[in-house]
Amino acid sequence: MPTVSVGRDRFFVALGRTYTQEEFEVLCFEFGIELDDVTTEKAIIRKEKHLEDDDGEVDGDDDEVIYKIEVAANRYDLLCLEGLARALRIFTGTEATPMYKISCIPRDSMLQMYVKPQTSQIRPYVVCAVLRGVTFDEARYNSFIDLQDKLHQNICRKRTLVAIGTHDLDTLKGPFSYEALPPQEINFVPLKQEESFRADKLMEFYKSDMKLKKFLHIIENSPVYPVIYDSNRTVLSLPPIINGAHSAITLKTRNVFIECTATDLTKAKIVLNTMVTMFSEYCKNKFEVEPVEVVSHDGSKTIYPDLSCYKMEVSLSEVVGPIGISLDETQVISLLNKMQLQAESCPSKGEPRISVSVPPTRSDILHARDLVEDVAIAYGYNNVPKSKPKCMTIGGRQPLNRFSDKLRAEVARAGYMEVLTFTLCSREENFDMLNRTQDVNKAVIIANPRTSEFEVVRTSLMSCLLKTLKHNIDHPRPIKIFEVGDVVTLDESRDVGASNNRRLAALYCNKQSGFEEIMGLVDRIVNVVRAPHIKFGQNYYVPTNEPEFFPKRQCKIVMSDGKQIGYLGIVHAEVLRKFGIPDPCTFVEIDVEALL
Amino acid sequence: MADVEACLLAHLNSGGEVPDSRSYASSLRVTHDELEAVIKSLSAFRIVDTTDITKETWVLTDEAKGYVAGGSPEAQLVAAIPPEGASKDVLREKLGSVFDIGMKTAAKNKWIGFEKGNKDLVLRKVDTIKDDLQEQLKSLESGEVLSDKVIDDLKRRKLITKEKSIWYALKKGPQFVAKRKKLATDVTQEHLRSGDWKDLEFKDYNFGAQGQPIAIGYVQPLLEVVREEIQNIFLQMGFTEMPTNNYVESSFWNFDALFQPQQHPARDSHDTFFLEAPAATKQLPEDYLEKVKEVHQRGGYGSKGYGYDWKQDEAEKNLLRTHTTAVSTRMLYKLAQEKPFAPKRYYSIDRVFRNEAVDRTHLAEFHQIEGLICDYGLTLGDLIGVLEDFFSSLGMSKLRFKPAYNPYTEPSMEIFSYHEGLKKWVEVGNSGMFRPEMLLPMGLPEGVNVIAWGLSLERPTMILYGIDNIRDLFGPKVDFNLIKSNPLCRLGLQ
Questions:
Q1: Are A335 and A257 members of one domain?
Q2: What are the helix (H) ranges across B317-368?
Q3: Is residue B250 within 8 Å of B315, Cβ to Cβ?
Q4: Which residue from A288, A335, A262, A451 is spatially nearest to B308, judged by alpha carbons?
Q5: How close does chain A come to B298, measured CA to CA in Å?
Q6: Total domains, chain B
Q7: Which DSSP symbol is given to A310?
Q8: Is the peptide bond before A226 cis (omega within 30 degrees of 0)?
Q9: Is A369 on the interface with B (CB under 8 A)?
Q10: What is its EC number (chain B) (predicted)?
Q11: Do B277 and A445 touch (CB under 8 A)?
């Protein structure tokens, strides 16, 4: 979940009242956001620099209290102070939802963005808008920059899907063009630099830039790089990497040109709408946005942003039914209004119907069910009367799990201690340390392990029990442990290509190997699992010769039809050495599913 | 010792008294120590009553005991001088420290002399001597009384010291018996067979001592036991367990079928374990896949959809399931194919996997508890009702619900419970109603809702047992002593 930092005092000014922290937390809880942390600018800087409280003064004398607020991942309109405050003002009923408008300007005086065909090779979409007569101050300016960062991190998927560029329109001259050119042909002075760079050299230069280097991969290997020019061939930006220095926004900027380049048009529109609906608050004509015409290479023209409301029509029962409350349409309409949704009753003969207008800030509303949630939130989740589902059903267990529990109890009764270990392990533990190098071809292998601890899914419980023994090596002997758990192996017969297998494994460790002890346990299990379809002959131990055990002190366990259901043996000295175990051990592993 | 006890008891029984245990001991020809042990044992049971007699007596020092055995220093000196005399050095070497002490008294007694002109040669002046000192010491040792002058002299020479000695006067005690019974410590087979048990009298038992350690087996007392109790709650509430023994899952069943868009951050390799082998799933239900694709791309069933280019490759990528909801999805899809529709309550408790950094509260694999109910007309009120039933069985009766976001549930609610110990609301789970975009493409009838909730098994277990490091609960580093010493789980006993 994304977290937004807002200055508490400025935020309370925007909310039109102050709250105690407790009151504010109650409001957050009801609305579905969370006050994650209360800190100060100084504390944040200290933390970043890893300083202790008394390690002297840090730069910046700002003692302003900062609220860190966690918001839902699909509410892009809550990613800045402006949006959060607006949503809460509307929620608490102190303000109505604003109407976001496109300013009326003649089509021929509208700014234009021409899209060149080559962009389709790398980043095909661009959408734009203009904010006129903006008044920035330092706090607003910082919020404007922060929102871009937050959007880039979240919906833009680290700029892969969408990248935002904002420019001082008064330094530029339209129309603009969105092109894709070989890097050698692009030259400009990037933001925060004084010299001009050729695009390929610039990419090289940014490889050592902590912030920007993680975006380079998006275009690095493309023969053409996306670039936006104005009519004087001034570079606005090299998306999704960096803007040009020429058109940089300052506190004095009055007219802002916003462009969003993208690989996903739906998201580009949401991002642009979010930027303009949030910051048109500071325009001379509040909540009014100047459109830009995007002219595609096929000649088609589209005007952005699209601030029209999404219309939905729902029946009353569709909205309140799933909540389990009864309200009339006026009540529902006023609850919807608290959630920024304009609504009105529609004329209808039968059941009451409600027409809802979803503003451009609420891109999360996809379905009537989303309205249900908003009505429920506005009504208060904790005010919904509880009820009981009426359906009568009978409980039951999975036979394999029930059977496993019976075996667990049986082995515990035999004096063994149950342990619970991880399914994930390292390649080395699961194969090499057990002298079982052949098994690699049967195992599920993780493609993106974070550490060597989690490289494969275990194909046996053996390494898990040996590891557990190692961690308790000072425990008094004899040590008798067991686990019932799943291993996973490749399985062509399954849709996903792998299947679990339930295993029972036990390990005995003492001054002597305990080979007979383990055989005694197996005898007991064989004795209790017998059933008309589970038969064992007189001799169910058949000698084997596997490298993880001592020769001649190992065998497999077979049913009377010859099917192998398990194996046991005195663990080989080499294996014990690799696991760091000084005393002899006997291990047994049994396929539980074969005994069901 | 038994004889001593028998003699003493017989003596007292026949009317005798023992005014002085020391002389009684000599009459029995045993040491006083032996008699004293018997007296102490009898007086502990008040069979005899004792009166202490204390007296201070002179006793010989170790040095004096040496003189009793080997003669006084002066006698030893005289005996050591040959007829022709001997030099001081020779005598000193022969007698050691005794030489210097002996010289003084021997000279005073005129038992020795020196050759004229040669003070070094010691000569013997008498043929026989009477060793008074040795005799005095012997008399003292045998208890005779010596004159004060002699005592003073011996005291000055540090040959005697004063010692306190205790002995006893004895008579019958209130519990007197002529013959003491032997106290039993245990009941044996022999007692029962012979009938001796009738006369058994038991020695007092030391209940401060611990019992014998017993050799037993153990089930994992934390997760497994808590799992069992939670399972019981589900079964009591009429829930059927889902088959969750499939850790490898396709992105399709784990994400796409749940209307979780392909660009969702949870599908990032930072959060999910993708697989090198088996890298991709081989089959997906074709009709259903088309419907899922459509609802993501363009919507339908009353939804706008996400409006992006849905890719089958992405859906086919295999992973280790990130939630058991992947299984719920398969179960609901299966249920949708069964006609006519029948309501279901399903639960599961099994492992899920997240590609997270491991720390005190996070593991790369943990257990997820999940419950869901599928029926016509289920409501958010029903969900709240079920959650209150479920969590109150877990001892969490004070619940609060917070709006939340989850791609496949709408409405979504985080579940908070008031923790009496921590004195605050803690998040205990997530819940919601599955989205129509998830249920309708499966073929479930319109109007059928699914209410569901999930939580981890580890978190409530940690709260229950006050454990703050998740690795003390699960994994190879769990301490065997913890498994052995954990108390019974009392969930479900309220």
A1: no
A2: 325-337
A3: yes
A4: A262
A5: 11
A6: 3
A7: E
A8: no
A9: yes
A10: 6.1.1.20
A11: yes
For residue A412, give both structure tokens.
């515990």
Please provide residue A568's backbone torsions phi and psi, each rounded to the nearest 5 degrees.
Answer: -155, 165
Domain containing B409 equals 223-485
A137 — contact with chain B (CB < 8 Å)? no
> Which residues, numbered 417 to 446 in chain A, qualify as contacts with chain B under a Cβ-Cβ cut-off of 8 Å?
417-424, 443-446
At A578, is the secondary structure helix, strand, or coil?
A: helix
- Which structure tokens are listed for A73? 């991942």
> Cα separation of A4 and A78, whole Å?
8
Q: Are A457 and B320 in contact (CB under 8 A)?
A: yes
Burial (CB count <10 Å: 0-12, 13-18, 19+), residue B160: buried
From the list A372, A276, A257, the residue with the least C-alpha distance to A324 is A372
The span from the CA of A42 to the CA of A65, in Å, is 9
Q: What is the token pair recorded at A281?
A: 């608050």
Buried b vs exposed e over A541-559: b needs ≥16 C-beta within 10 Å? beeeebebbbeebbbbbbb
Cβ atoms of A72 and A255 closer than 8 Å:
no
A596 touching B (Cβ < 8 Å): no
Q: Please write the tens of the pLDDT for every residue from A41-92.
A: 777 777 777 665 555 555 555 678 999 999 999 999 999 999 999 999 999 9
pLDDT at A295: 96
- Whether residues A424 and B435 touch (CB distance < 8 A) is answered with no
- H helices within B50-123, ranges in order? 62-70, 73-80, 88-95, 97-108
On whether residue B147 sits in a domain, the answer given is no
Report the residue of chain B nearest A475, measured CA to CA.
Answer: B480
Establish if A240 belongs to a structural domain. Answer: yes
From A320's Cα to the closest Cα of chain B, the distance in A is: 9
Bridge partners (DSSP) listed for residue B415: B401, B429
Q: Assess whether A445 and A547 both reside in one domain.
A: yes
Per-residue pLDDT band for A440 (boundaries 50, 70, 90) equals confident
Instruction: Write out the H or E segment, with its range, that includes residue B43.
Output: helix B32-44
The model's confidence at residue B42, banded by pLDDT at 50, 70 and 90, is: confident
Query: Do B330 and B420 belong to one domain?
Result: yes
Q: What is the pTM of this model?
A: 0.82
Supply the DSSP string of B216-227, one letter for each residue: --B--TTHHHHH
Hey, what are A233's tokens?
């061939």
Token pair for B235: 């079964």
Q: Same domain, yes or no, for A314 and A300?
A: no
- Please name the amino acid found at residue A577: R
| A237 plus A133 within the same structural domain | yes
Interatomic CA distance for residues A531 and A549, integer angstroms: 31
- Tokens 């390292």 locate to A426
Average pLDDT, chain B: 89
Could you say which of A264, A393, A443 has the minimum Cβ distance to residue B308? A264
CA distance A586 to A584: 7
β-pairing verdict for A125-131 and A65-70: unpaired
